[in-house]
Amino acid sequence: QIWRPITATFFFPVGPGTGFLYLVNLYFLYQYSSRLETGAFDGRPADYMFMLLFNWICIVVSFCSSSNFQNILLLMIPLIMSVLYVWAQLNRDMIVSFWFGTRFKACYLPWVILGFNYIIGGSYV
Question: Are 80 and 29 contacting, i.e. CB atoms less than 8 angstroms apart?
């Protein structure tokens, strides 16, 4: 069943408890992906696509090595976190503002989002 990693990347179980988390993660994907496309990968869409593909392959390999290949359920949040992590590392010293006016350096943003996902969704993956 070779299609499982592909479908797990685009699948997110939207329900009463996860709808808000889904919308927030789509916002983060759009916001930081567009910042990468217009910043570090400006004029180089093939390089950006290669980065996404490489991140996806690393995520699939790490999930397959840690569990059974049949149990891959959800790869969307790890892929979003990888895009966010790349942006945060390229802009380490930039001050970002999270909800309710919390301000910190961009290098800590992936960890804040990881904690936020855990609080809202009950899972870090």
Answer: yes
Residue with tokens 């149990």: 71
Q: How many domains does the chain have?
A: 1
For the entire predicted model, the pTM comes to 0.79
Phi-psi domain of 100 (left: phi exceeds 0; alpha: psi -120 through 50; beta: other): left
Joined together, the tokens standing for residue 108 give 């800590």
Which residue, 56, 102, 99, is CA-closest to 79? 56
pLDDT profile of the chain (125 residues), mean per 10? 74 75 84 91 93 89 66 75 91 85 88 81 56
By CB atoms closer than 10 A (0-12, 13-18, 19+), residue 46 is exposed
Sign for the CA dihedral angle at 81, 87, 89, 91 comes to negative
Q: Give the range of the structural domain holding residue 78, as residue numbers without chain letter.
A: 2-11+18-121
| DSSP assignment of 36-55 | HHHTTTTT-HHHHHHHHHHH
